[in-house]
């Protein structure tokens, strides 16, 4: 089995793959769309990509590609603790505070805002496709005075020095990753304990009905279906046109969730199931 992940090696996505599928062949791709393309083109069996961070919110490109570009069912989810460190090339470990630019993924930079503001005020930060890509860039430019924000696996993988550990603003920082497959896939080959099931649906509201969102929520509420998340995203058809991504706690059954969907359709809503899947948790965070 092959699984695509957001690379290069030693990203947080790579760490999630190693925990979730230790026996699979993990293949890095440089962007999230590339990971999804790999599954659609049957280069890999699965893709594991980030979908939400506890501090920075949803990874919009993942949601938008799932809805607008390609229909890949969600077959699983894994949540992992995130710890960010400041990495420098060994050539600069003694004078690491003299760096002139800092590289990382935009989410990682935002997660470390307080540290960067207090320690490197005025020093520019530049976005990279991933935290590991920033670490790899440091390795390839040993003479430049620069740093990267990444994890300890990236430091080991690319021979860098951790100048400052745990520079994230908040300790409770987690990222949710979703697992995508072209066809039905049952997750069995993992040592991680299963925490439960979710069903994710996309709902579009009728354009000419006031109170439609209230009616949508009521359809779930009176059936005692717990919603763990609801999020609006633009339909890209004009201002004010949105769809909703709703996570329902529980596995797709024969009565409750289909009944709620039928009620929504009777109200004039569009409803599409994006996946009904188990979710897992990495208890020990990567440093």
Descriptive tags:
287 residues, alpha/beta, D-Maltodextrin-Binding Protein, domain 2, Alpha-Beta Plaits, 3 domains, ten-stranded mixed sheet, five-stranded mixed sheet, 9 helices, globular
Detailed description of the structure:
By secondary structure, the protein is of the alpha/beta class. The chain contains nine helices and 15 strands. Strands 1, 2, 3, 4, 5, 11, 12, 13, 14 and 15 form a ten-stranded mixed β-sheet that branches. A five-stranded mixed β-sheet has the order 8-7-9-6-10. α1 links the parallel β1 and β2. 39% of the residues are buried.
Secondary structure topology:
Layout: E1 2-6, H1 12-20, E2 25-29, H2 32-40, E3 46-53, E4 57-58, H3 60-69, E5 74-81, E6 85-88, E7 101-104, H4 106-111, H5 113-119, E8 125-127, H6 131-140, E9 146-150, H7 152-157, E10 161-164, E11 174-181, E12 194-204, H8 212-221, E13 227-234, E14 242-249, H9 256-266, E15 270-281
Parallel strand pairs: 1-2, 1-3, 5-15, 7-8, 7-9
Antiparallel strand pairs: 3-4, 3-11, 5-11, 6-9, 6-10, 12-14, 12-15, 13-14
Helix pairs in contact: 8-9
GO molecular function, one term: prephenate dehydratase activity
Pfam families: ACT, PDT
Pathway: Amino-acid biosynthesis; L-phenylalanine biosynthesis; phenylpyruvate from prephenate: step 1/1
């Amino acid at each position: 089995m092959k699984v695509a992940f957001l690379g290069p090696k030693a990203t947080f996505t790579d760490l999630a793959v190693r925990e979730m599928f230790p026996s699979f062949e993990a293949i890095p791709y440089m962007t999230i769309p590339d990971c999804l393309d790999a599954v659609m083109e049957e280069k890999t069996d699965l893709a594991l990509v980030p979908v939400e961070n506890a501090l920075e919110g949803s990874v919009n490109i993942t949601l938008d590609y799932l809805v607008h570009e390609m229909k890949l069912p969600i077959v699983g989810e894994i949540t992992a603790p995130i710890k960010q460190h400041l990495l420098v090339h060994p050539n600069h470990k003694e004078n690491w505070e003299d760096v002139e630019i800092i590289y990382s993924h935009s989410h990682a930079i935002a997660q470390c805002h307080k540290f960067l503001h207090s320690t490197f005020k005025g020093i520019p930060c530049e976005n990279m496709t991933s935290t590991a890509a920033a670490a790899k860039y440091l390795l390839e430019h040993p003479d430049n005075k620069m740093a990267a924000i990444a994890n300890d696996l990236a430091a080991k993988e690319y021979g860098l020095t951790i100048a400052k550990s745990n520079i994230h603003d908040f300790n409770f920082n987690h990222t949710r990753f979703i697992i995508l497959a072209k066809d039905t896939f049952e997750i069995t080959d993992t040592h991680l304990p299963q925490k439960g099931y979710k069903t994710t649906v996309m709902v579009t509201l009728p354009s000419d009905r006031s109170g439609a969102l209230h009616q949508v929520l009521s359809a779930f509420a009176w059936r005692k279906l717990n919603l763990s998340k609801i999020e609006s995203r633009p339909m890209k058809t004009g201002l004010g046109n949105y769809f909703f991504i709703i996570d329902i706690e529980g596995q797709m059954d024969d009565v409750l969730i289909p009944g709620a969907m039928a009620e929504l359709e009777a109200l004039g809503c569009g409803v599409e199931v994006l996946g009904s899947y188990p979710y897992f948790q990495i208890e020990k965070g990567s440093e």
